What does this fold into?
Amino acid sequence: MNFEFSDNQKLLKDQANKFLADKCPLTEVRKILESDEPYHKELWNEVVNMGWTAAVIPEEYDGLGLGYLELCMIAEEVGSSLAPIPFSSSVYLATEALLLSGTIEQKEHYLPKLAAGELIGTLADAEGYGSISPEGFAVTFKDGKLNGEKMPVIDGDIADFAVVAANGDKGTSLYLVDLSDASISKEVLSTLDPTRSQARLTFSDTPAQLLGKDGAGAADLEKVFDNAAVLFAFEQIGAAEAALDAAKDYAMNRYAFGRSIASFQALKHKMADMFVALELARSNCYYGAWALSTGDAELPIAAATARVSATKAMYQCAKENIQIHGGMGFTWEFDCHFFYRRSKLLADNLGSQALWEEKLISRVVASTAA
Amino acid sequence: MNFEFSDNQKLLKDQANKFLADKCPLTEVRKILESDEPYHKELWNEVVNMGWTAAVIPEEYDGLGLGYLELCMIAEEVGSSLAPIPFSSSVYLATEALLLSGTIEQKEHYLPKLAAGELIGTLADAEGYGSISPEGFAVTFKDGKLNGEKMPVIDGDIADFAVVAANGDKGTSLYLVDLSDASISKEVLSTLDPTRSQARLTFSDTPAQLLGKDGAGAADLEKVFDNAAVLFAFEQIGAAEAALDAAKDYAMNRYAFGRSIASFQALKHKMADMFVALELARSNCYYGAWALSTGDAELPIAAATARVSATKAMYQCAKENIQIHGGMGFTWEFDCHFFYRRSKLLADNLGSQALWEEKLISRVVASTAA
Amino acid sequence: MDFNDTPEEAAFRAEVRTFLDSVATRKSDPQDSWDKNVKSETEAVEIAKKWQRTLHDNGWACLHWPKEYGGRAASQIERVIWDQEESQYLVPKGFFMIGLGMAGPTIMTYGNDEQKKKYLPSLASSEKIWCQLFSEPVAGSDLAGIRTKSEKDGDDWIINGQKIWTSGAHYSDWGILVTRSDPTVAKHKGLTYFVVDMKSPGVEVRPIKQITGGSGFNEVFFTDVRIPDNQRLGAVGDGWNVALTTLMNERVAVGERKGGDVLELIELAKNVNINGKPAIEDGAVRNKLAKWYCEFSGLKFTRFRSISAMSRGEVPGAENSIGKLVGAAKSQDMAEFAMMLMDRAGMINDKEIAPFAGMFQQTFMQSPSGRIAGGTDEVLRNVVAERVLGLPQEPRADKGMPYNEIPTGTMK
Amino acid sequence: MDFNDTPEEAAFRAEVRTFLDSVATRKSDPQDSWDKNVKSETEAVEIAKKWQRTLHDNGWACLHWPKEYGGRAASQIERVIWDQEESQYLVPKGFFMIGLGMAGPTIMTYGNDEQKKKYLPSLASSEKIWCQLFSEPVAGSDLAGIRTKSEKDGDDWIINGQKIWTSGAHYSDWGILVTRSDPTVAKHKGLTYFVVDMKSPGVEVRPIKQITGGSGFNEVFFTDVRIPDNQRLGAVGDGWNVALTTLMNERVAVGERKGGDVLELIELAKNVNINGKPAIEDGAVRNKLAKWYCEFSGLKFTRFRSISAMSRGEVPGAENSIGKLVGAAKSQDMAEFAMMLMDRAGMINDKEIAPFAGMFQQTFMQSPSGRIAGGTDEVLRNVVAERVLGLPQEPRADKGMPYNEIPTGTMK
It folds into this structure.
C-alpha cells in the first residue's frame, strides 16, 4: 500500500511552500486586508508564472497536464499561506466547469487564457441567504440573455468571466458570461474577510452562452463542486495546520506562573485535539485526492467526507488559535484573525457544512442500500 | 425575588437525604443489582412509611396534600441514592395520571391505596423499539377488553395496576388495568439496569376501564409526561451530583506523580464542566418546579428544558465519573457503573432525549410565533 | 418560590423608579441607546459627568458605599435592582465603574486619612474618572507576574513599564496602578500599589485596535513617570493584597447578555432555507436550538438564583463564573452557526444587507474576546474547580522563587 | 498513491496465504470465530498452543524476531500483512502476544546468555505462555510509582505486593515483573525487573469482574514469593529502563475496530422510528451520522497512512494514539446514541430481542474501558501533545524525590 503522495509531489509542495513563504508572508495578506485592493495582483502574476493556474489543464490547451494530486499539493500551500488571490474561483471552479462541460471551442477559447492567467474565472450560483436549491434559480436565461441577480459571487468584481447557474428552457443549466459586458452591474460587498472579494452581480439582458448540456446544470454543478470540495479541503487543512503551528509557537514561548503556557494540560490537550481534528481531516483529504485523481466512483462520498472534516478542523484550529494567544489573539496587530476570517470564508463559500453533511450522509445511505 | 426552595422544603430534603443515607446506601443498590429481586421491598415499605407515596395526593384521598415543590425535593434525594424502588412509576406516572384524569370513583379507589403503598402503579405506553407515536398504538381496546403487547413496561412485573395507552373507539385513550388479571402474560426483560425492573406485558382480552375522556389519551399522556419530566429531572440532577461528588472524592485522594490527580487541569476542567452542566440543569429544574407547582402556562417549555438538560448532565457526570476513577471505574466492585446504568435508564424511560428536544423546540417555536 | 420582590425590595424599586422618572427619560424601545446622537467621546464623557453629578446631588452616586463616605450602604440586591431599573432609562453607563466600584473601596480599606480626604469626595461627586492599570503584555492570567518597575527617588517613585487592556485610559483623570518595587523577592511579595495622575508627564496612552476593527482598550506606557509617595496605597511590598481588595470589589455581573441569543437564531432559522426547506424544519438545526435554548434558560435561571441569594443577603460566589464561561462560548458557536445557515452569504457584514443588521457577524468577531477578557475559559474552569468544587491548585513552578529568577518566554 | 501491495509485499502476502491455506481453515463468513465451539478456557489454551506449535514448526511463530533467535526478521509491514491474512482464518489469537511480542525482545536486549538460552527457545516453540505484571492499584498512568517490594535474601529475592490488570495470569507459565527494590531513591531509580514463575508458592491470581459482568483481567497477589537472582533481567535498580524496552515493543495496533461502527448505526437508524418517522430521515440523526462517518473514515485512512509508512520502512509514531483516543470515545457516544434511538427499549440487552443481538448495549458497557485501558484519554492527549507536537512536559511534583517521601493518597 502506498497511501501517500509521491516524492515528486512532495517536492512540488515544498517548492510551493518556499515560494509562498517568500512572496506571501502574512504581512502581504495584511496589506490586502487593510487596503481597498480586492486581491494581491503581484502575487497572482507570480502564481501564474509558477504555472499553478495551468496545472491540471491538458497540454493541448497550453496547460501543464499535471494530475490532481499535484494540484492538491499546491492547494494545501495556497491555503496555508492564506494567499489573497482568486485561485479557488478561477482554478477549482471555473476551470473545472470548463474541463467538465466545455465544448472543444469553449475549451480552446478559455483554457489557454486561464492557464496563462489572461483570464480570471469564477462561478456564480448563490442567490442570497440560505443554501441554494438547484431546482429553481431565480436568474433566468432566455434567447441568449441572462436576467437576475447573483449574490454573493466570490471574486465577482475581479473575474473576467463567470460560469453562471441559471434557469433556462430546460431547467437549471450553466452559462458562460463575459463579466466585462456593460449590461452587468457589480456591487462589491462588505464581508468579514476582505482578503477574498465578494460581489453582487445583476444581469440585465446580459449575453451568455450555454456551458454543457441544456438542463444538465444541477448535475454538472454537483460534479464541479465535488472536485472543488477536495481542493478546498486541502486549502483548509493547509490553513488549519498553519493556525495550529502559530498557536504552538506562541504557547511554547509565552510564560505564566514561571513556565511555558504550553506545559499546562488545558492548552496541551486543546492543541492535541486540534491536531487530532487536523489529522483525521488530512487522512480524509488524502482519500479525496485519491478518488479525485483516479476518478473513482467513491469520489462523491470521499469529497464530502474530506470537505466536512476539513471545514471543522480549520474552524477549530482558527478559533482556538485565538484562544491560545489570549488577549493578544484578539488584537488587530496579531495575525490570528486572518485564519479565523478565512476559516468561515472557506466554510461557507462552497456551500455550508450543513449542506455537505447532508450530501455526505445521503450518499453514504444510498451506498448502503446498494 | 425568591427563586429558591423554602427552608421547610430544604428541611424535608435534608430529612430525605439522611433517611436514604441510612436505609439505602449503595450497598443496598448493589444487593438488588446482584440478586434476582426486582426491587428493594423493605426500602419501599420504609418509603411508604415516610409518606412519600402520599406526598401530593390530596388529604381527601388520604394523602399528605403537600405541593410539588416538596415532591421535587424528595425526587432529588431518591435520584441521588439510586433507590431501587418503583417510585417514579407509581408516584410520577400512575398517581399523576389518576390525579389528572381519574373520576371521583377511580380516585377514591386508587389514590388512598397508592398513598398507603397498598398498590404500586405504573404506566405502559411503549411498544417496542423507537419512539412512540401517539397517533397509533397497536394495543387495542374494544368492548371493555385490551389486546396486544406493551414492551418495555417499567416495573411491569412489580406493579399491581397499570395505566395503559391504547387505541380505542375514539383513538388513543388511557385505560386502567389490574395487572393481577390472569389474562396477562408477563415476561421480565434482561436490561442494563436490573435495579429497575422492566417487563413485556401481553394482554389477551384483559378487562380494562377508561381513564379520562375517551379519545383524549394523547393529550392526557402529554400532560402526565410533562409533570413527570420535572420529577424525573430532579432524580437526574440528584444522581448527577452524587456522581460528581464520587468523582471528586476519588480524585482528591488518589495520587499520581506525587500529587492528587484532582490537581491536574485535565481532571479539574472535566469536573468543572460536569459542575457547569449540573448547575445549568439545576436552574432549569427549579424553573420546572416553579412551573409545575404553580401550574403555569410555561410548564410545557419548562418541563422539556429541565428534562433535556438534566438528562445530559446526568449522563455526562455518570460517564466521566468512570473516567476519573480510571481502571477502578470499570470494575464491578466499584459503584461507578450504578450511576452509568441508571443514567441511561432515566434518560430512555420517559422517552428519549431526542424526543424531549423535539418537544422543547416545537414548543419554543410555537411560543415565538404567538 | 416566586419571582416577586420582597416588600422591602419593592419599596426600594419604587423609590429608584420615582427618582429616575424625575431626572431621566424612560426608553420607549428597549433597543434605544443614550448615545444614539452623541457625536464624540468628549461629548459622551461630558454627558456622563453631568449625569453622575445629578446622581450625586440626589444621593444615588455611590449607593453601595458606606454612609460615612456619602454612600447609601446598599445591599447587593439593591444594586441589582438599581441596575435593572436604570437600564430602562436613557442614561450613560460605565464611565465611573472603576472609580466608584473598585478604586473607592480600595481607598477606604488601604488609604490613610489624608488619602481618603483627597480622593473619596471627588470620586463621590464624580468630578474625576478613574481607570485600572493592572494587566501587562507579559502578565494576563498570571497577574502577579507584572513587570512595570517602581523605584524610590527621594519622596517620589519613578515608574517605567507598560500596562495593557485599560478601558478609558485616554479620558481618565486618575489610575490605580500595580508595580514591581522589588524584583528580588517572590513575585507576590515585591509589588507596590499607587494612585497615578493620568496627566503626568511620561504617561502615554495608545488605543488597541481589536479584530473587530474597533478599540475599546488601551495600552498605557510609563516612561520615568513620577508619583509622590503620598499616592502610595498600602505598604511598600504589600501591593498584591491591595490589588486583591480591588479585584474583590469587581462587580458581579448578573445582567443578561444582549444580542444574538437563541430567540434571534430561531427567527433567523425561520427565514433562511437549508437543504431545500426552512432551516427551522431541519432536525439538525432544531437539535442545536434545543441545546442552546437549554443553556439560555439555564443561564437565565442561574442568574435568578444568584439574585435570590443576594436578596437573602448572601454574597454571590464563584458559581457566577458559569455565566461568562458558558455564555461566551455559546455566543461564538451560535454566531458561527447563524452564519452557516446564511450559507454563502454568511460573510456579508453590511448592515443594510445582512439579517439582524449584521449582528451575528459582529458577534462572530467580538465573541473570541468574550472567552478571554476578564478571565479566559481556562482560568474560569480553574476558578470553578478550585473555589466551587474545592479541588487543589496545581503546584506552582515559580513558588517562592525570586521574581527575577522566574523563567520567562520570548512572547509578549 | 494507490492501495496496492508493492511487488515484495504481494509476494510475502502470497507466501503467507499459501502457508495458511495449508494448515488452517479460511472463514466462510467474517463473523466466524475460531472459538465458537470451544467449551472451556483450558481447551482454548490447548488449541492455541497447538496452533502456535504449527506456526513454530513452519517458521512463522515469531516472525519479527531476529533470525539468530529463530525469527524471520519481518518488517512492520510484513507483520501487518500477516495479521490481515491471519484474521481471515479460523485460528486462535492473542495468547502469545505478551511472550513473543514483549517478553522475548526484552530478554534479547537485557538477558544474559544463560537467560536467553533458558527462555527464548521455549518462547519460540510456544510451550510457555507469558503475562505482564506491571500496573498496580496505586500505579496506573504513573507506572513508575509501583509499590510491589523486592528484597534480596541470599541468592533469592522475596516479593510482596499486588499487581493488577494482568491478562491471562491464571493460565500463564511465566510473568515479566517490575518491582521496587529500593524505596529510598527517586522513583525511576529503585526498580528491578524479574521473570517470575507463575506457579511459584505465594502467587495468587484473582479474576477482576468488570462492569460488563465479564472478567478479562486479573489481580495478582505476591506473598513472600521467592525468585532466584538469575531470573533478574538487567541490573538491580535498572528496572525502569528494562520496562521501557518492554513497552516500546508493545504492538502498534493498526487493526480496524469491530462491532457497532457507523454503518451498523445507519442500519439501526433505518429501522427505528423517531418523532414519527424513520430515524434515518431525521436531520439531527443525519448530522450525528455525518460526524461519525467522518471520524470512521478519518481513522480508516489514518491507518492506511500508517501502513504506508511501515511499507516505506518507517516506524509508526505517536500519531497512532489517535486511533484509540478517537475510536474509544466514538464507540461510547455511538452506543449511547443507538440506545437513545431505541428509546424506551434501549436498555434491553437480551440478545434475542435487542437489535444486532444487543451489540450496542454491550458496547455501551464495554466502551468506558476503552477510554482507560492502555492509556487514558488524558494520557493519550499528553502523548500527542508531547511526542507529536513537541510541547513541554508538566513540571513533575515528585521529581528527584525519594520514593518513600512522595505524597500518596488514600484511594487505590
About this structure: The two ends of chain A are 27 Å apart (CA to CA). The first strand of chain A starts at residue 121 and ends at 124. Chain A has eleven helices and ten strands.
